[in-house]
Amino acid sequence: MNPRVKSVKAESNFVLLLEFSNGEKKRFDVSPYIGKGVFAPLSDESFFRKVKVFLGSIQWPNGADLCPDTLYLDSMPV
Question: What residues in the chain have per-residue pLDDT under 50?
Fold first, then answer.
């Protein structure tokens, strides 16, 4: 089982700075998801910045979320 998200901060260019339960900090690029389906509202940067930690992963107010394993495996170390 991969570590879970402990904190999240939205950065510019649709990138998230994530801290995981094992202490690692990584950046995840959300731009490939922007404008598609439930992720369409994220193209508004003010909405994108409303991301929160939710049950070991992340979620936006409209319910859009990403799998914590995807966030961990597909992010780049800081």
Answer: none
